[in-house]
Every structure is written in C-alpha cells, then in structure tokens.
Design brief:
By secondary structure, the chain is of the alpha/beta class. The chain has 16 helices and 20 strands. It is globular and about 65 Å long.
Length: 470
C-alpha cells in the first residue's frame, strides 16, 4: 500500500508505547519507538529464513527478477513517506544528495540487481574436456548495516542476496532502526513470506548473527574495528564475508587543476551527507602553487550551503547523527586548532543549540601527521594539506592503513590517470569523488575491507561457484 506520510508509515511499524525511543538528531524530538529483538528472536528469524530459502531459490532468476522490480515499485510509491522518516531519524535533509536521493537510490539499486544475467561460464570446451562454472545460492545471508545511509546500504546488501536465491536476515544500526524496519516493511508487502527479516537489536544480536551456524554469509558496512570482530566471530563456521570498512579517503589535486572549476565537486565529494559517508573525501592534498586559490574557492562554495533541520526544504546539510560522532569531530578539530592549524571556516559550534550540528569546517596549514588527517573524522570538517607536488601527495595518501577510495583532480586526464594508478585504494575517481554506480564494482583495499559489491561482480559474490566437469 501507499503511505501518505511518515506518521502513517510509523503507525504500521512502530509501537505506540514501550520499546526504545528514537530521537531526531536535529531537534531531540521523538521520532518513534522500536521494539528491540532478542537473540531468541534472531534465532527464530534465521530459522524462518532458512526454511523459506529452498522455495525462493527454486523460483529461479526469471521469477525473482519481477518480484524485485515490483518491490522497487513499492519503494517509489512510498518514496516521500520513506524520505521524511529517514530525514527525521538520520538527520539528513530532504533535498540535495540526501534523503530523497537515498530513497531514489534504493529503488534504482534494487532494479540494478535484476539487470544482469548470471549464466554458467564455460571454462574449457576443447572436444575432449568440458567444464562450466555455475553460481548457486549460498543459503541465508546475514546483513549488518550502518547509520549513515541506512536504506541505501541495506539495499546494497539485500538486493543482490535475494536476486541470487538467498534469503536475508538484516540487523540495522541501533541509531537508525526505524528506517530499515520501514524499508523492510515496504519490501515485504511484495516479497514472499520469510525471505527477508529485519531484526532490530543491540550488540548481542549483531554478535550472534555474525557467529550464527545457520548464516552462510555476512555482509557488513561499518568500522574497521567492528569488521575485525566479525572476521573473528565468523571464523568457526568459515562464513563468506563482504566487508566495507573505514575509509579516510584522500584527494590529490594536480598543479594544472582549475580551482574554480573543481570547487563545487570537491565540496560535495567531502561533505555529502554532512561528511558522514565511508567513501567521502576526508583529506585533501593540494600543491603549494595553487594552494591559496583552492582554499578560497572551497570557502566560497561552503559558505553558500545551508545547514539545518532536514525537513526544511532549503537545507542541504544536516546534523551529525549522534552525540558520539559529534564528539569525535569536535575533538579532532580542536586538536588541529590547538596544534596551530588555520581555521578557514567553521570550527566554532554553538553548544547551546538543539541538535548535533557541527558547522561546515575547512582547516588549512595543517601537519600531514595531525589526527584530523590520519584519523577518519566522518563529519563536516576537511583538512587541506599543502604539498610540493603530486609525488609528495601520493606518499601521504598511501601512508595510512586504509584505502576505500581516492580521487585525482586536474585538467590533463593522462597525467591524472598516471597518479591514480599509484594510489592504494579500491576505487580512484578522476575529477569527482564518491560517485558510485550500480553497474561498477565497488570495494576496499588494505584495511578498508574486502569483497566487491555492485554489478555482475557483486551478484557473483553472493553465490557459491560450482564447477561441473564432464
């Protein structure tokens, strides 16, 4: 059915009393309540998903595809209600690359999961030997999502899983459970019973999911520290894993770049979702020859971007989603200022105001080893580091133990490609940052995780390869 607004949708998924309160990070007002589940509830969900999996798999690709596209239709029919709920719970504004953008992306990525044929691949056929590689369903996939893009990343996990004949048990972040419960509710109005379960709970539920003997694969997006814990807890059952972990992405500006031409895209590469994005640009290396013009151009763009409550149609930047993240950003910026770095913009939050708003902050003249550079801030604060040339920038960019994404900015594409090839990151963008595409594989290098999502590679990662010879 189509829900007229977020309140109507909340009435269908949220208890009127009891449960855990979920508050708006922009205002502190009550959004809704969530009935948190126990480990016993998780066990029941996994058992139901496992029982439903053979019949879901037996439908085959040709019958699963229309169901997934119908589920995408239902997301679109409820897009405004979902976006309003997402804005209130997560904090991101409705407009800009935020709540409405995320809901639209969720539908698009669900459709993209149906866009490829996953046919058997003939490996050898020489007249004497014949071998083909097939892709079989794994069974039950456990999905553990973050609070920054709760709907979009849930779809990244569940869409390819379902397409390949698996059933799914999802555990949303404790910070944004309502968004994922609502999304699951909308999808389950179309999908067969028990192929998708959302189990909202605390840490013990996540720990049990990653170790559960009846879960065949874990998909996780979140911190490197939690990813390492999942690796350990999944070891006894040798689960398959896809992990998208911490980023701290570097941007490298070339000497031939036009500061005015790149400033807008640089800003959104860093400040999309108010900086709360794994693959956002989090440290920018600029050659001394154009350092001041780049800083000036970024200041002008940043000043023009309104920040405030997400339901205000004028805003494009919102609050930090939670107090813990606010404190991390504030501490890292303070450390930079105390070290002698220059504040170009921001860095002076109004602690008496409602909500977890941290002002858009640009920091220059900062040491490459400062914590604001070496630790992932995950918020609206960008350090701009002066370097002699691209060689020094590459050295600094590769110095950390993470490598989710990176970017190169310049006018000469051939030179930019040369630099890109030297950066240790799963994805390197040229003259943009974080512009993901459902057709293009995405995954991290080093301690930013392993496994690929999106496109045909992403579908295959949710299957068990089986070679048949004869």
């Amino acid at each position: 059915m189509a829900y007229a607004n977020a309140q109507e949708l909340l009435a269908a998924i949220s208890p009127a009393t009891g449960g855990t309160e979920v508050l708006d990070p922009a205002t502190g007002e009550l959004v809704g309540r969530v009935a948190e589940k126990s480990v016993a509830d998780l066990d029941s969900a996994v058992a139901a998903a496992r029982a439903a999996q053979p019949a879901w798999d037996a439908l085959g690709h040709d019958e699963r595809k229309p169901l997934l596209n119908a589920a995408a239709d239902n997301i679109e029919a409820n897009a405004e209600a979902l976006a309003e709920l997402l804005s209130r719970e997560q904090g991101k504004p409705l407009n800009g690359p935020n709540a409405r953008f995320e809901v639209g992306g969720a539908a698009a990525w669900l459709r993209a999961a149906t866009a490829y044929d996953v046919d058997p691949e003939v490996v050898v056929d020489d007249g004497e030997t014949y071998a083909a590689k097939h892709y079989r369903a794994l069974g039950v996939v456990g999905a553990i999502g973050p609070w920054n893009w709760p709907m979009m990343i849930s779809i990244w996990q569940l869409a390819p899983s379902l397409r390949m004949g698996n059933t799914v048990v999802m555990k949303p972040s404790e910070y944004t459970p309502l968004s994922v419960i609502a999304l699951g509710h909308i999808l389950n109005e179309v999908l067969p019973a028990d192929v998708l379960h959302v189990v909202a709970g605390g840490r013990e539920v996540g720990e049990k999911l990653s170790a559960h003997p009846d879960i065949d694969k874990i998909m996780f997006t979140g911190s490197t520290r939690t990813g390492k814990a999942i690796i350990r807890s999944s070891a006894d059952t040798v689960k398959r894993l896809t992990l998208e972990l911490g980023g701290n992405d570097a941007g490298v500006v070339m000497e031939d770049a036009d500061p005015q031409a790149i400033a807008q895209d640089l800003f959104w590469g860093a400040f999309i979702n108010t900086g709360q994005t794994c693959a956002a640009l989090k440290r920018l290396y600029v050659p001394e020859s154009i350092y001041d013009p780049v800083c000036s151009a970024l200041i002008e763009v940043a000043k023009a971007m309104p920040m405030g409550v997400g339901l205000d149609e004028n805003n494009v930047l919102g609050p930090l989603q939670n107090k813990a993240q606010y404190d991390i950003v504030a501490d890292l910026v303070k450390d930079a200022v105390d070290s002698g770095a220059t504040v170009l913009l921001g860095a002076n939050p109004d602690d008496s105001a409602a909500g977890y708003f941290y002002p858009t902050t640009l920091i220059s003249d900062i040491d490459p080893g400062n914590r604001l550079v070496t630790e992932e801030q995950f918020g609206p604060a960008l350090p701009i580091i002066k370097v002699k040339d691209s060689a020094e920038a590459i050295k600094h960019a590769n110095a950390l133990e993470v490598g989710l994404g990176a970017s190169v900015w310049g006018s000469d594409r051939a030179k930019a490609l040369e630099v890109a090839a030297q950066l240790q990151a799963g994805t390197v963008w040229i003259n943009s940052h974080g512009t993901i595409d459902p057709r293009i594989p995405f995954g991290g290098a080093k301690q930013s995780g392993y496994g690929l999502e999106f496109g045909l590679d992403g579908l295959k990662s949710l299957a068990q390869p089986q070679v048949i010879k004869g």
